[in-house]
């Protein structure tokens, strides 16, 4: 019998919509809950399990009892309880992986921090460790061991034939990340199913991008801005350049809302309507008049929504669309060429929203330069 284990980090992604740029640490998790954040990792794990069983109903799913377990599992394994009631830690993740070390394939729902814990656990198991696959549920998902979406993780698991490949695990120091320092570190590699097209791949840096290209993109965005319309600037160096072009100090890793001021390049100015906003704050701003989304592409992965910008939730997207707003995508020609024809991706956590966003979008690639490119739901079925 084909047996799949599932481990859920129940606090993964908790800090995303709350604008906290991560979920590591009990204080951060409590602050995220205080800001109205809602755990989503369990839902995403359940989606992967449903997809797996719909395609391979003879599979047996084993998970962990309590908050680290996945809905739909046939068998639950109880871990020894320790520490604060209801609170899970990295040690719990490692213990859960060890407890499920006998399965044919292990799925884990979390982000890069969870991937590091899984790496530690399978290293301890040695040659007896099963192949693993990440279900993306974190704020930042830079490692290459994650499927493109929860549903894709289920597709891959259902079609797994034992063939594996190596995928990198990288992570950031969240405290430095919150202060604007983006310095991913390679921690090692995990054995994953050999389904390259269905995996997100490691995030590629943009250090080789010419400064003039980014500034040209920013200049073009500002030239297209309409007074009276609010513009949501997602995270990233390219959107940060848009803020600079407006004469504004916007945030590198947060989501900001701005408006354009005067006309003409000599007199263009702007105002920050909301700085480093939470999902709730963004929704209130988005529904209060015409609003547009300005989002950059994650290099190497192609994600436009759902990675590092969870503040742009399905209801925010709906509010923008209902107000007649548009999605403005920013990417250098280098980033698009590196995708090798693969589509841009949306993973908002709501399949209907991702489908609404699918189609072809205009991508601004420089000053007076742009191209039409396809965007697809991350859960779109791939020929594995």
From TrEMBL:
Keywords in UniProt for this one? Kinase, Transferase
- Please provide, alphabetically and separated by semicolons, the GO molecular function terms listed in this UniProt record: kinase activity
Tree of life domain: Bacteria
- A Pfam family found in this protein is NAD_kinase
Q: Which InterPro entries match?
A: AcoX-like (IPR039065), NAD/diacylglycerol_kinase_sf (IPR016064), NADK (IPR002504), Put_ATP-NAD_kin (IPR011386)
Q: What is this protein called?
A: ATP-NAD kinase family protein
């Amino acid at each position: 019998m084909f047996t799949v284990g599932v481990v859920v980090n129940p606090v993964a992604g908790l800090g995303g919509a709350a604008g906290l740029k991560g979920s590591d640490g009990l204080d951060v998790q409590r602050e995220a809950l205080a800001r109205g954040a809602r755990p989503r990792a369990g839902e995403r794990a359940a989606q992967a399990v449903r997809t797996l069983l719909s395609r391979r109903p003879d599979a047996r799913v084993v998970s962990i009892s309590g908050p680290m377990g996945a809905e739909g599992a046939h068998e639950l394994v109880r871990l020894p309880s320790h520490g604060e009631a209801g609170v899970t830690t990295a040690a719990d993740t490692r213990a859960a992986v060890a407890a499920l070390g006998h399965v044919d394939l292990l799925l884990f729902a979390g982000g890069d921090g969870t991937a590091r814990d899984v790496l530690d656990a399978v290293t301890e198991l040695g040659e007896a460790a099963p192949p693993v696959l990440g279900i993306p549920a974190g704020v930042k998902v830079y490692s290459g061991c994650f499927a493109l979406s929860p549903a894709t993780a289920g597709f891959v698991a259902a079609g797994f034939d034992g063939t594996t490949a190596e995928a990198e695990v990288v992570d950031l120091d969240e405290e430095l990340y919150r202060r604007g320092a983006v310095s991913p570190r390679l921690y090692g590699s995990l054995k994953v199913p050999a389904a390259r097209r269905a995996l997100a791949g490691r995030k590629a840096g943009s250090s080789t991008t010419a400064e003039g290209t980014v500034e040209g993109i920013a200049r073009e965005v500002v030239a297209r801005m309409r007074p009276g319309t609010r513009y949501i600037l997602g995270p990233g160096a390219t959107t940060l350049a848009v803020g600079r072009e407006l004469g504004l100090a916007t945030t590198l890793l947060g989501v900001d809302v701005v408006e354009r001021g005067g006309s003409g390049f000599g007199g263009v100015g702007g105002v920050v309507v909301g700085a480093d906003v939470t999902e709730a704050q963004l929704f209130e701003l988005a529904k209060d008049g015409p609003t547009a989304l300005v989002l950059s592409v994650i290099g190497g992965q192609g994600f436009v929504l759902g990675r590092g910008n969870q503040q742009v939730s399905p209801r925010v997207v709906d509010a923008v669309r209902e107000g007649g707003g548009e999605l403005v995508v920013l990417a250098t020609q280098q980033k698009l060429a590196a995708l090798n024809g693969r589509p841009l991706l949306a993973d908002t956590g709501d399949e209907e929203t991702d489908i609404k966003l699918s189609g072809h979008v205009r991508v601004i690639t420089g000053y007076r330069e742009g191209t039409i490119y396809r965007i697809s739901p991350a859960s779109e079925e791939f020929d594995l």
